[in-house]
Task: structure prediction
Amino acid sequence: MIQTRQDLSHVQRAIVKIGSSLLTDANTGIRMSMVEHIAAQVYAMQQAGIQVCIVSSGAVAIGRVHLGWLDKDLSVHEKQAAAAVGQTWLIEAYRQAFAQYDVQVAQMLLTKDDLRHRRRYLNASNTSETLFSAGVVPIVNENDTVMVEEIKFGDNDTLGALVGLMVHADLLVMMTDVDGLYDGNPNEHHDAKRCSIIHELNHDVMAMAGGSDSQFGTGGMLSKLTAAEIATRGGVVAAIVNGQQQGVLTDLLSVKDVGTLFLCGEDRHSRHQHWIADVLHVAGQLHVDAGAAQAIIHNGASLLPIGMRDVQGDFDKGECVEVLADAVVIARGLCNYNSTDLRRVQGLSSQEMAKILGYKDFTSVIHRDNLVLKIRGNS
Ligand code: GLU
Result:
């Protein structure tokens, strides 16, 4: 278990996620020098006994270059078409770069749906294991050509974290074009410092991403912190490093002070909690009052009908819903009743609920065992 930077020398399995901005060149499509830089470092990791899976973005951006679509606003189908074109260049570049070391690569295209379905999840996980044992480097990307909003990971940082949990990696490295997480905007504040280690990814740390999905104009810090949260809750240490820095992966693993390292806290998610918090499709929203929010956040309580103020969406019992207080998502959980029944009983006691519905399978709307908090306190 990795508890300090020094422990990074014991990593056995790592996910290396590379963003589109590092891999794309507006003239040539793929930035081959970057792919070669990554292949050299990943090969060195393999030589040191570390199994590596690459999660690579870039398909859409590279496809745009080859289709001459750089200056055009793309429709969803055009993005999917660009991804289909770009993915062939991407995988060919990795194949060529790793061939210099006589290492095979494998293409794995996944959707969030694949991770939600038990059988497909097991197939993806077993295939990864087989590839690792054969010394192959899996190159994972989202299967963009079939994506629709409901099955999208949203970004490859999240995909990297979910794949990390799926293959029981020790480490998720997110390579980007900044040196890590800063405690302020270095473009505005010259004294802004890179955070070397984050022990707890609390609300204050999240706020350092600037409240948008773009830190300092380079993009994606919030999604990286969200991915780090998923990874560390599941026992996978996360790091954000600058992929442009020569030999940065080697430096990270030889415990040099590079990037920002996110260690795992005590409050880990079980597999069941991870499933609810990060994987399942959210089918609706339950708005609760302050008393219910307090009981859920601080007292480990279940959600009872009396605390519900509004029900949004159409869902069946057993589906995953978000719990909101004052428009902030505080938890996610598996609902014991369908949306039609819940609308009839919101604000009522459990006894009244039984009378109105004519049945009472459960006292709670969401039992505590099926409820996962989505907020963290300040430090
Ligand atoms: N799957 C997308 C691509 O390869 C990238 C998604 C992301 O950058 O997060 O273009």
Observations:
- The chain has 14 helices and 15 strands.
- The first strand starts at residue 13 and ends at 18.
